[in-house]
UniProtKB/TrEMBL annotation, chains A, B, C, D, E, F:
It catalyses: D-5-benzylhydantoin = L-5-benzylhydantoin; a D-5-monosubstituted hydantoin = a L-5-monosubstituted hydantoin; D-5-isobutylhydantoin = L-5-isobutylhydantoin. It comes from Paraburkholderia caffeinitolerans. InterPro entries: Asp/Glu/hydantoin_racemase, Hydantoin_racemase-like, Iso_Racemase_Enz_sf. Belongs to the HyuE racemase family. This is Hydantoin racemase. The keyword Isomerase applies. It is an enzyme of class 5 (isomerase). The keyword Kinase does not apply. It holds the Pfam family Asp_Glu_race. Keywords: Isomerase. Gene3D superfamilies: 3.40.50.12500. Its EC number is 5.1.99.5. One of its GO terms (molecular function) is hydantoin racemase activity.
Amino acid sequence: MRILVVNVNTTESITEAIAAQAQAAASPGTEIVGLTPHFGAESIEGNFESYLAALAVMDRVLSYDQPYDAVIQAGYGEHGREGLQELLTVPVVDITEAAASVAMLLGHRYSVVTTLDRTVPLIEDRLKLAGLDTRCASVRASGLAVLELEENPARAIESIVGQAQRAVKDDHAEVICLGCGGMAGLDRQIEESTGVPVVDGVSAAVTLAEALVRMKLKTSKVRTYAPPRAKRIVGWPVAFAK
Amino acid sequence: MRILVVNVNTTESITEAIAAQAQAAASPGTEIVGLTPHFGAESIEGNFESYLAALAVMDRVLSYDQPYDAVIQAGYGEHGREGLQELLTVPVVDITEAAASVAMLLGHRYSVVTTLDRTVPLIEDRLKLAGLDTRCASVRASGLAVLELEENPARAIESIVGQAQRAVKDDHAEVICLGCGGMAGLDRQIEESTGVPVVDGVSAAVTLAEALVRMKLKTSKVRTYAPPRAKRIVGWPVAFAK
Amino acid sequence: MRILVVNVNTTESITEAIAAQAQAAASPGTEIVGLTPHFGAESIEGNFESYLAALAVMDRVLSYDQPYDAVIQAGYGEHGREGLQELLTVPVVDITEAAASVAMLLGHRYSVVTTLDRTVPLIEDRLKLAGLDTRCASVRASGLAVLELEENPARAIESIVGQAQRAVKDDHAEVICLGCGGMAGLDRQIEESTGVPVVDGVSAAVTLAEALVRMKLKTSKVRTYAPPRAKRIVGWPVAFAK
Amino acid sequence: MRILVVNVNTTESITEAIAAQAQAAASPGTEIVGLTPHFGAESIEGNFESYLAALAVMDRVLSYDQPYDAVIQAGYGEHGREGLQELLTVPVVDITEAAASVAMLLGHRYSVVTTLDRTVPLIEDRLKLAGLDTRCASVRASGLAVLELEENPARAIESIVGQAQRAVKDDHAEVICLGCGGMAGLDRQIEESTGVPVVDGVSAAVTLAEALVRMKLKTSKVRTYAPPRAKRIVGWPVAFAK
Amino acid sequence: MRILVVNVNTTESITEAIAAQAQAAASPGTEIVGLTPHFGAESIEGNFESYLAALAVMDRVLSYDQPYDAVIQAGYGEHGREGLQELLTVPVVDITEAAASVAMLLGHRYSVVTTLDRTVPLIEDRLKLAGLDTRCASVRASGLAVLELEENPARAIESIVGQAQRAVKDDHAEVICLGCGGMAGLDRQIEESTGVPVVDGVSAAVTLAEALVRMKLKTSKVRTYAPPRAKRIVGWPVAFAK
Amino acid sequence: MRILVVNVNTTESITEAIAAQAQAAASPGTEIVGLTPHFGAESIEGNFESYLAALAVMDRVLSYDQPYDAVIQAGYGEHGREGLQELLTVPVVDITEAAASVAMLLGHRYSVVTTLDRTVPLIEDRLKLAGLDTRCASVRASGLAVLELEENPARAIESIVGQAQRAVKDDHAEVICLGCGGMAGLDRQIEESTGVPVVDGVSAAVTLAEALVRMKLKTSKVRTYAPPRAKRIVGWPVAFAK
């Protein structure tokens, strides 16, 4: 089984970290292919960048020319998953939703700890649309930008642990979701510090994607995610991919 | 006052129709500028096309080089409004939300009549995110594609009237929203056939945008719609606009 | 166009302040007529007074003998708007709902700052019924009574600013609605102090009413707001209006 | 124990029917006093009449000069209960809420069968505000006006039974609430025809009021229902009561 | 009228306290029979114990061989009420739901003060399923185990009063529900300390059960609570009741 | 990895069918152990039987004396999962929730097709508690009892297909969940007949359980699912297991 794990930003080192985390979570025999978009922002921290990433992810997947069994969109709270589901027949799993689905199997309520405060409403909105918000105790921001996670891991852990602890104590979260693709790999450390299960979205998405493939389940094509109708389109996909 | 009314698809005749409808609804002294995206699909009937349109609308507005006071995104149930709000300081009004806001001033519950069934979930999702879904009685599809509205107006009216009548009778709608930018101009005819107020989204958006400008109100910049942070971005806006 | 702006209490100076605010927000050519109820309380701070005001507003509008195009009920969180909508054919706009509708065009979540804590549940209930509560971050009380706003504007501003700042910081509001007709005119000062857009309900209602009139939209009469049936009624409107 | 049962309309025969139903449901030793408002409409079928009734009920109760232990507002879906709760210290029970509370003890979901279709949204709104709507399967209208219930009981029963049967079969209601004070006394007949428990609001309200009095529980006075503040009020209560 | 009040745990002294409280709340002529389960835990503070109690309560009621008119399940937030409703024809009242229903007649929002923090989610879940959660301001834990209430009443009162005061001040509760069968009898003391009405669940359930019996209302048997179908069952009820 | 798949009823042939379905869905190297409760009903079609099953499942798992990595409760809409989560440290997956979580990855809305109409509210309640109900289009009953599925598979398929088709056409479901453990194995046939993905709960639960085990995630023990406190318990587990 081959699973494409698509980074939402253009920072190669994040793609590599995500792919490594995905491979570690995968079953034997699953090949992970990490993809970096051909265009877009070096990190995604807001709606404009997220919309740009939505197209860039679709563009990147469509320009991948080998067979694959599932696609993971490895951005937290980002737009675009619905578009991929229209364009593809294989399952598409978003890490925001995967993490929440897994967290809900482990505790009564979960919290998400993400990067900047400005991305909190995006994550809340995605969880609401996905119908996975009812048992979300809170979405909390560490205050660190995406790229700072890479630059200063020690400070990142301290800050994320602090918010995770407040989520458990003040918001009654029983599970923590790591709300950023770039946080891959921090889960065990944070779990030790907080005493509650910590769900990494990339790992959750990989194992859910494997589950779907193993069950031979694909995206439903009868209504919302039916293939796009044939029509005249300007600037796609060439303009983006060149 | 100058208001940009941006079509979400690349069909110029629809831009013209929308702009005419907008101008008719505008106050004396308001100049309407209709804009057609430089790329994207000839009609928007699904998530992929809508995400593409989201970027195309942002691209088109940013490449407009004259001053303006407000922007209207003239697509029903489309993605992207949040991105425009980040990029701009002037008010941004989406016709889906404008129509619903106006409809809620006129009756206890409203319904939307749109084009194809596959776009119903997109509209429902946008209303849910906007927090305007509680009093929505139903979103109904006429079964006609966007471009068919132009090609066969008589059949379009018949079909839309039929769904509007069922919305009033079966779903207890007291107001009908015309759920497509391309329906601009049909409101009076349908109002006569159904006996309830019919809200055209473009007109609603124009008058709301004028209201915001007159009150000197602009998009809040403290959190969700703060300007994008300075960062390295590949392929924007040149790749799109050329 | 003539718009009636009806105060909910019997304090003439508040009517004058509201009417002045309304006129300032109105388009050229719109005539604002401020009306004071013939009976009721000097200020409205609770359910009993609000129910009394509901009738007094209906009575006052019905006893106005000139033509008019729209009516604004200028009380925050008050009962009665539905009754006016039954009795009249022209549009009726409540300032609570107008402010919320406008706020939702400007930011992800809004808060209301009102007068006494005891009126908070009334406002929350009206927003819930109007289906405009989903994106309401909080309704906060300044602790000042309605009439204190007039008597000590400096203290009022200080107190309202304090609550507005807490709404932005603690409740993640991105827009503030001024939750009292008597707060008309304070918006710009508070906007400067908080850095977020401040919506004055009277201004919002005037511009929305103008929008409805310009679009020739009136209250739907098919169900909830159908005209009262002909029947025997004792004590109306004579007892009230004499 | 003495309980005031206040009709919302001015039709004496309805007051008598309600009072008889209340007395039949009351415990030995409970005295029921039926009161008819001094002003208002002969039947309540809409918002204007309901707002007028809200004041008329408050006026009528305040002008009752004997001691009493609880008050029942015997109108279905009417405004005003909150005002009574402010003005009084004894418990106030609304029959709409009493019926729903009792129905929820008897089945998984309940439906309300009321009179005219135009009153359905009023009942839905009151149940929503009361937080008793989650398990409401539907509110259905028999199509008969309030006064027709008295004039043609046979037809009324047939029509109400028809809607009750549809509520059970189509909406999965397991309990039926009789949604009109004037339906008092029809419950047993309808129960036989539908096979599900039928809750009469007046009986429910009487037994709940007795329960509150027996537990020495009164309306909370700390916030929403605190007594009105001392202030200048014009036209109350004299103008109404004379 | 005879009402069975079934303790959920096996501590006889709690059964006695509950029965005494129930008798005090009952009307003259109502006989209260306190029952202790034949098996289960000495106190119920979690899901496993609650599920065990659910069966034990059903078992205990079925093994009671005298006639009775209603059954009260005297555990706060416990499982099992739906099972009793299937097995019996007489009304079944759960004290969690009874307390909430009564509280909602007395104030705009209510809070529950219970024992250990771990039981808070159970109570929240039961209120949610019952559709009585909308007006619940909070469920707060005193931090005392069930049996500590008996052992150290002074400390229990102090701790419960503290949480009740915070519920009123911080969560805007206007009514307090005592969230444990073992708290029966503390209501008046806590009411004096907090200034808001305090609802004891056992008393509420008794008076509601009396109301149902007086109205001759029984559990609906058409769907959810239809009698169990005839089928082969192993280990019931003998294994439990021996 | 060893996963216990616990039937909720005492019919061995159903246990065997479930275990076979589970083994077919499992990864190589996963051992499935099917367990049948020592007591309870031959099929579960209501609350009483479901509560009995809840205890029987806990009892059966506790009396299993080999090591295992996860437990699946293979009943649709049944009580008890929370109790297992308290008693165990390994992950517990309920097939109702597993199916819904998987379905939500595949389409915008899903429906459940179950056996008897009387079990519909149980399933709706479990989905509501699990916070997985928002995107549930409907829960439909085939009208066949659990054991009829085994006795007459042809008729079962016809009936289930009929309801699945109505779910897709009338309720806009895009995915179907098979709402009964005993339906295991019918998924492919029904998928062909309806054109939408069909999720078998047992398969979904197995793959999710494997995912949790692979990620080394266990049930959170900080609050809701903390181990039961040490206390005196009568009749557990001996009385049930003997």
